Write the structure tokens for this entry.
Amino acid sequence: MKKLLALMLVLTTAIFAVGCGGAADKGGAPQSSKKIVVGLDDNYPPMGFKDENNEIVGFDIDLAKEAAKRLGREVEFKAIDWASKEAELKSGRVDILWNGLDITEKRKENMLFSDPYMDNKQIVFVLKSKPAAIQDEKDLAGKIIGTQSGGTAEEYIDGNADLKASLGDYKKYSDYIAAFMDLENGRLDVIVADEITGRYYMSKHPDVFEALDVTVGPVSTFGIGFRKDDTALKDEVQKVLNEMKADGTTAKISEKWFGKDITKK
């Protein structure tokens, strides 16, 4: 009788656990309640950066917070070495790369992407006090160029042997803050940077820097990066992103950071 009661207790406990717990991950926690760790470069304004209170803020931060809220999940923002972003994602130290990440064919080999949510292009920035006659990327020949390590501009320049060989010098920086400081101090002739990032810096120093309407390389699009096998999380996030776009939330966040809705329709 005791054995029968013990067996019934075990079965009841198991049924209760399945009924209340839902689908569990390897650690036993329901997938729907698991915290989402977002990897980012926290020196990438206005997409993700630290404000004067040392809080991580930005356009992508607001998007991620709203998405996590709708999913009923906690979100953690983790600053990483952006040049090692794919290793951070693959190792599981972060769940998502969400920080102005360009969708490229090379990156698609190692991660899944959300639908594109914003166009991005690399343009040229110079000092207003030192104007440069640059009409296209061929005019970069002989110039001292700076860009961010691990970014799209670096990938393009490194993959274009003729362009790279034509440069007077080519410097890579851990973030664009250091690059713009060197431009202001005369250590660079030109910065090739994401238009969104560069124009944000310009808005803070309108009398110092100038953006030239010169596109370097192809126009790209931003997407959210997921581990190659994590289709469940990708689908969850994409669903709420679609809802945010449909109800106007994404447009409002864009207007907050850029003054208008520049997201993809």
